[in-house]
Specification:
By secondary structure, the protein is α+β, with helices and mostly antiparallel strands. 68% of the residues lie in helices and 14% in strands. The chain has a single domain, classed as Outer membrane efflux proteins (OEP) (Up-down Bundle), CATH 1.20.1600.10. The radius of gyration is 38 Å and the shape is elongated.
Length: 413
Amino acid sequence: MTAFQLSAQTGPLRLSLEDAQQMAIERNRTLENASIDVKIAQANRWQAIASMLPQVNASGTYNDMFGYTMDFGGMSIALPSSASMGVTASVALSGAQVLNAAMSKITKQMSDITALQTEQTVASQVKTLYYSALVADQTLDLLRSNLKEVERLYDFSQQSVNVGASEQVSADQLMVQVASARTAIKNAETSLEMIYNSLRLQLDLEPDVEIVLTDALEKLLDVDAGLAMMNQQFNLDNNYNYQLLKKNVELARQQIALNKWSLAPTVSLAYQYSAKHNFGEGMDMTPPNTMNIMLSVPIFSSLSNTKKIQSAKMSYQKQLNTLAETENSLQIQYRQLCYNLQNAHAKYVDQKQAVEVNKRVFDNIARKYEQGYSSALEMTNASTTLINSQSAYVQAILEFVNAQIELDNLLNN
């Protein structure tokens, strides 16, 4: 959604999960910085390539001798004022320049990977916040439903007290439960507002922009698709962290070659055209065309270059060790995340069943309470148990969603 569309919108901002993720990708400043880093890397690469291409420079000079004459073997030679113009074309080539261009290409690729990784992170954060908002909203619905039921029972209990059919302590116990339910609702509303503020921050929205989430939790919570991820093959090359480490290994290997090329010669070629005009009599001894070829060969560096090569080789070995360790670490992480997802699913199923059972128990005790077969204490305990069960259920939903997101990011399929 463009800035114009946002400014033109008068009502609440209605977003599906896909819309929210796309909007964050387009407007998130962290991702914008990652895109700028890609452009910087591209510019640096062209700088490295340009250093191997011909360079052309032009110059102009004016010399005023103030009428000075030079005595040469009894002859008086006037040195007139003069103006000269020159154009120089030069090119220098060495193995180090070629390798610098290759290394800048790898750096560009790393910037591309980092940008994709940042995009993945932003999309995952938005997805987590979107689910959290839906779950928090569902929590509020459950709490409000509980409050409505407890208030109804409190009114019934108070009426029983008024006609002398019950003691005041029974109504007071339910009144405490009503107050607790109202407090829980206020806390849930505060948590929901914090989630929406975090979502506004991710989407780069003004604080007063109202957000309406159009996707339902039941639609997004695809349990079968989440469990199917555990059967997907884990390809290390799809993981962004692993891709970056492999590029670091390539850079370290190229650094060895770069230091070796510091022992190789450098060839440079230059052509210069010069034109000179004397303001007065005098000899023009400036040749119009000049070409220079230079070969520079390093001879002795007090072992400096040798030690650079040794250091680069050791750094390369460190990168290989890190890559091997990361391969093992990612495989273990995959195994752990699959276990986490499986465990979160089992917890989700158990808590869903627990809510259904506790709701039936609560309704049964509520009916008995109205008929005088259960006490206010039993009613209070049933209400507390139901609220705790509902809280555990929504927490299980979040754990299952987060386990899905973590495994999905690792697989990156």
